[in-house]
Design brief:
Elements (H helix, E strand, L loop, with lengths): L13 H19 L4 H8 L3 H25 L5 H21 L3 H29 L5 H29 L3 H20 L8 H5 L13 H9 L2 H20 L3 H8 L4 H29 L2 H18 L5 H4 L1
Helix pairs in contact: 1-5, 1-6, 1-7, 2-3, 3-5, 4-5, 4-7, 6-12, 11-12
Length: 318
């Protein structure tokens, strides 16, 4: 990180921009399959409930992987975790796309969640390691903006390709993940030696003085109210924004007569608002703290989702 000669604002490291670009590619997958679920379910002979496991199984694999990584992540280089996770997710996505039955599709689609979890863990830790404390909000804003752009593009890209073939979105996504893994290897050379331990426990952290043992440090984290609140918000946010929005909503819209392409555009509309909001959120949280923007975001989202559930009319849904 460099400061200008006049003592001006710090510039974010290039690696943060690289991780944000890769985040854009990865988050395409959260929405790319959504519009194709109804048509793909028809091909595989699976109904609404069974096809919803395409997201739920993916999320379950992410959860199991997240829990498993905590045991040994500190000894592994984060860039290695990131690019290996991307390759694994790419291969699983492509195999799921060409599966000839529901069991094969749901198994490899779910398994790809392990690669997604590896990327999420490694990218988050890299952001913490690379960004100074006073600019972490800005760094997360850049990353959130890129991932929101991926969320915007996912349903639109998925809807476009699903019109041609409902399997095509997963094939395109697998190829994009392969490109992202190459970008990680080529552009993150400066971060190749960073591991999780110094990244997660920063010197100014409230847990810097916690006992050095891994299990004791985890107990310190679990006993902290702020950490517990952050975990709850992540669970709720993940369930709503990356679960319900990408499964329940497209399946419900399809059941009332919306075409695949239109579903993709409607899902992208909500993601556009997410992209716009993320632009200012980082700077705001650096100035006013993390709690006020968080509470405002939860309140706005609750109102919007409640109103969305009251109508099927296109203008109101949009």
């Amino acid at each position: 990180m460099r400061r200008s000669e006049g003592g001006g604002a710090r510039r974010l490291p290039r690696e943060i921009l690289t991780v944000s670009f890769i985040g854009f590619v990865v988050t395409l997958g959260f929405g790319v399959i959504g519009p194709s679920l109804p048509a793909l379910g028809a091909q595989l002979g699976a109904g609404t409930t069974l096809m919803s496991f395409a997201i739920s199984g993916f999320a379950l694999a992410r959860l199991v992987t997240n829990l498993g990584f905590t045991v040994f992540l500190g000894a592994v280089r984060l860039r290695t975790v990131l690019w290996v996770g991307l390759i694994f997710q790419a291969v699983c996505s492509i195999i799921a796309a060409v599966a000839t039955d529901y069991a094969g599709f749901i198994f490899f689609r779910s398994l790809s969640g392990a690669g997604s979890a590896a990327f999420t863990i490694a990218s988050s830790a890299l952001l913490l390691a690379l960004a100074p404390a006073q600019a972490r909000g800005r760094a997360m804003s850049v990353f959130a903006g890129a991932t929101a752009l991926g969320t915007v593009s996912g349903p639109a890209v998925g809807g476009l390709f699903a019109v041609l073939d409902p399997r095509l979105p997963l094939l395109v996504y697998g190829g994009a993940l392969g490109v992202a893994s190459v970008a990680a290897l080529a552009l993150l050379r400066g971060a190749r030696d960073i591991t999780a331990s110094p990244a997660v426990v920063a010197p100014e952290s409230a847990f810097a003085d916690a006992p050095s043992g891994g299990s004791r440090r985890r107990r310190s984290l679990l006993g902290d109210r702020l950490f517990a609140a952050a975990v709850v918000c992540q669970v709720v946010g993940g369930w709503v924004f990356y679960g319900m929005r990408t499964t329940t909503m497209p399946l419900q819209l399809a059941s009332v007569g919306y075409a695949v392409g239109v579903i993709g555009l409607l899902l992208s509309a909500g993601a556009v608002a997410q992209l716009i909001g993320s632009g200012a959120a980082g700077a705001l949280s650096d100035r006013s703290g993390r709690v006020t923007p968080l509470l405002a975001a939860l309140a706005i989202s609750a109102v919007g989702l409640t109103l969305l559930g009251t109508t099927n009319e296109a203008p109101a849904v949009l």
